[in-house]
Amino acid sequence: MLFAYQQSAGHLEQLAVSDRLQDAIWIDLYRPMPAQVQAVAALGVDVPTLEDMEEIEISNRLYREGGVDYMTVVLPGLSETRAPLSGPVTFILTPERLVTVRHHAPRPFETYPRRADKVGPGCSSTERVFLGLMEEIVGRLADLLEGTGTSLDAVTRSVYDPDQAKRSEVLQDALQNVGRVGDLVGRVRLSLLTLERAIGFLGQSMADRSPSDGLRPVVKALLRDIQALEVHADFVSSRVALASDATLGMVNLVQNSTVRIVSVVAVLFLPPTLIASVYGMNFRAMPELDQSWGYPMALGLMVASAVGTYLFFKWKNWL
What we know:
The protein is built from nine helices and seven strands; from the N terminus they run E-E-E-H-H-H-E-E-E-E-H-H-H-H-H-H. The protein is of the alpha+beta class. Strands 2-1-3-7-6-5-4 form a seven-stranded mixed beta sheet, sandwiched between helices. It is rod-shaped.
């Protein structure tokens, strides 16, 4: 799909499919078809393939060619089946327009067009559109980190609750939630790293392109925000590790409690089993077998031995 936007009265207005792409200040390619790629290529923009975007070499992710900046970052989003994933997004910054290429659906690409005039630098130039979109992305990553903190609070409450923590299904859900949060934090951390590199690359090239349009403070502010979020992501990662250790510890305690109960029951039945085994031997000289009180005596010995073992365990505080 192809989404094109033009700057109109200080905000972004989406162009119809039949409108001229030359008038667009931002062209967003989402899983583009060959015809759409050719239409953008006619504007002098080389659209990379998904294989090019997934290349991890720095020379293929951040470079400048013919006065055009190519910056590829990794962003969390949704697949076609609405499954969460992280994928590459390429920003192609030319003097006339910004072109973005993506094969999944990060949320900021849906929210930014409606807020372009309200976000930081505005949308009066291609660089301002790019930096405004970056601010929207950074804000979305901050929201994701805040959401992970809320999820971890719920997990720790369920794990440390003495009533809930004894239920195996509660601990299983907690462990699954911790795993999901840890995966999300890792994806956010990777996004912040690639964003920091891309914005740093833009800051270095701005001196050649527009040294006096007042965007350097915006770039520095974005870098500070990203660095602050990286510290927050590291803190959340430590919380994920603590929650995981606490959950696994509670799982071990529940398992140990179950094993202890089974072990005690087995030990309680050992003396009665020994007595039953003795009187189950087929020897001729066993006087109790010929007495009327032999059977009640054997039952009494078995009960007494089990009760005695139980009282001994209680006295030793093993129960």
